[in-house]
Amino acid sequence: MFDPERVFEEIKKRFSLPYLTKEEGLVRVFSINTNEASEELYSAILEIIEKELRGLKNGEYQKMEISKGENFDSGIKQTEILKGVCYEIYSFDTLTMCYLRVLWERGIFYKREWISVDADEMKKSPWFSEMEP
């Protein structure tokens, strides 16, 4: 079973980076925004995630690498995405789906770079119910 909370707890422990979390009904979200970006930190975060994914014995995941992108908030470009990785993770034991992303971003208005790590987890996802044509 993949649990995003274990990922965020390990990041917090290793790098003293607090995270935000919220749970409503069958949905949990987690978020970290670092104060700076470095190749060492970015690689270490991905290593923590990959280690957790190696323990996913009854499930599947997709890994998508991002080479560049943009983030728009309310129609206004806020950041450039310099690189990133997105994971879509399905845990068959718990019928849970998690969308997890790690983005290296550069602000348009705030001239700095940071790494954001965000996860959206849906318990008892409709992906596990039978679909009708």
Average pLDDT number: 93
- What is the number of domains? 1
The backbone outline, from C-alpha atoms, is: globular
Strand residue content? over 45%
Order of helices and strands: HEEHEEEEE
What's the total count of β strands? Answer: 7
Which residue ranges are poorly predicted, with pLDDT under 50 across at least 5 consecutive positions?
Answer: none
Helix/strand structural class = alpha+beta
Distance from N terminus to C terminus (CA atoms, Å) equals 29 Å
Radius of gyration: 16 Å
Largest sheet: 7 strands, antiparallel
Tally of DSSP helical segments: 2
Helix content: 10-25%
Write the layout of secondary structure elements.
Layout (H helix, E strand, L loop, with lengths): L3 H12 L4 E5 L2 E7 L5 H16 L4 E8 L2 E5 L2 E16 L4 E12 L5 E10 L11
Antiparallel strand pairs: 1-2, 2-7, 3-5, 4-5, 5-6, 6-7
Explain how this protein is built:
The protein is α+β, with helices and mostly antiparallel strands and 133 residues long. It has one domain. The protein has helices at 4-15, 39-54; strands spanning 20-24, 27-33, 59-66, 69-73, 76-91, 96-107, 113-122. Helix 1 (4-15) packs antiparallel against helix 2 (39-54).
